[in-house]
Design goal:
There is one protein chain. The strands form four sheets. A five-stranded parallel beta sheet has the order 2-5-8-1-9. It has a two-stranded antiparallel ribbon with strand order 3-4. It has a two-stranded antiparallel ribbon with strand order 6-7. A hairpin with a 4-residue loop joins β3 and β4. α3 crosses α11. The protein has two domains: 170 residues, 3-Layer(aba) Sandwich (Rossmann fold), CATH 3.40.50.300; 104 residues, Magnesium chelatase subunit I, C-Terminal domain (Helicase, Ruva Protein, domain 3, Orthogonal Bundle). It is α/β, with parallel strands linked by helices and 331 residues long. The longest helix has 17 residues.
Length: 331
């Protein structure tokens, strides 16, 4: 258990290394109106070396937000527009013949970037999704008989449209689970929409300026790893996971017939790391239950699989997770 002096030292490290957060939010805010929560979740993914899935109807600035965040980071960036006719080679690259040497050499694809925007990822067929899965999970890509590591940091920020079904291939649960966070992007408020009209209809749209480097991100990650999380909060996270698997043990018998599969241990790992990153964004060197609750829905919503009975009762995973958070005792 850490002493008060150790926590104070961690607080000082966090205060020093998290100074870039305000600058990044300020630069992104020059382009994006509102959507602060979405931008923070993108930063959480970046700080935790975890991938982020953005889901929302077209026109909510999902792609623009990722592009803008990439502009604030002096890192390589590529955008891949997923389509039904995309091939794995279009994503990871292929072997090409070099006439001068008479050898086949690997030509790397657009996935070899530090920030990869996978636009409308649910439009790609299964073979392309599996190729992306290897890059996301293993941080490596196989071309021919050679395996190539991805650069560090390597972050996949994917978008998908939930309302259009024609020409789409829904992501399998196993692949969705590889995304650390799934963010549902909602409509802006009336005031935000008015500001959007003013900003985007007068002259050249604003652009963000680079304010940090990949080295800054890697250094911040090492500090996030040191953020203190008490044993009681770890137990609280475990209780939340257990409640998704056995709701009756926590007095939630009504959820037993509504949840088909609960969260795997990957969910508890991601929730712990995301809570640490959220504390870092709030410039704290320790995790509170509020940090867990703040990121809990985004970490768990795609990891709780509901039954047909829940769908018949129009109960979404978010509804069930909200009930669990309301009933599990907070330390």
């Amino acid at each position: 258990m850490l002493m008060a002096e150790d926590i104070k030292l961690i607080n000082e490290k966090v205060a020093e290394e998290s100074a870039f957060v305000e600058r990044v939010l300020e630069e992104v805010g020059r382009v994006i109106v509102g959507q602060t929560s979405m931008v923070e979740r993108l930063l959480v993914g970046m700080l935790c070396n975890g991938h982020v899935l953005l889901e929302g109807v077209p026109g909510l600035a999902k792609t623009l937000a990722v592009n803008t965040l990439a502009q604030t980071l002096q890192a390589s960036f590529s955008r891949i527009q997923f389509t039904p006719d995309l091939l794995p080679a279009d994503l990871v690259g292929t072997m090409i013949y070099n006439q001068q040497t008479g050898d086949f050499v690997a030509k790397k694809g657009p996935v070899f970037a530090q920030i990869v925007l996978a636009d409308e990822v649910n439009r790609a067929p299964a073979k392309v999704q599996s190729a992306m899965l290897e890059a996301m999970q293993e941080h490596q890509v196989t071309i021919g008989d050679q395996t190539y590591p991805m650069s560090d940091p390597f972050l996949v920020l994917a978008t998908q449209n939930p309302i259009e079904q024609e020409g789409t291939y829904p992501l399998p649960e196993a692949q969705v689970d590889r995304f650390m966070i799934k963010v549902r992007v909602t409509y802006p408020s009336r005031e935000e929409e008015r500001a959007i009209i003013d900003r985007m209809s007068e002259g050249e749209p604003p652009a963000a300026q680079p304010v940090l480097t990949p080295e800054d991100i890697l250094r911040a990650r090492s500090v996030v790893d040191q953020v203190y999380i008490d044993a009681k909060i770890k137990n609280y996270i475990v209780d939340l996971m257990m409640a998704t698997r056995d709701p009756a043990a926590f007095g939630l018998q009504e959820l037993s017939t509504l949840i088909e599969y609960g969260c795997s241990p990957r969910g508890s790992i991601c929730l712990t790391r995301a809570a640490k990153a959220h504390a870092f964004l709030r410039r704290r060197g320790y995790v509170t239950p509020e940090d867990v609750k703040a990121v809990g829905m985004d970490v768990l919503r795609h990891r709780v699989i509901v039954t047909y009975e829940a769908e018949a009762e129009e109960k979404s995973p978010e509804d069930l997770i909200r009930t669990i958070f309301d009933h599990v005792e907070v330390p």
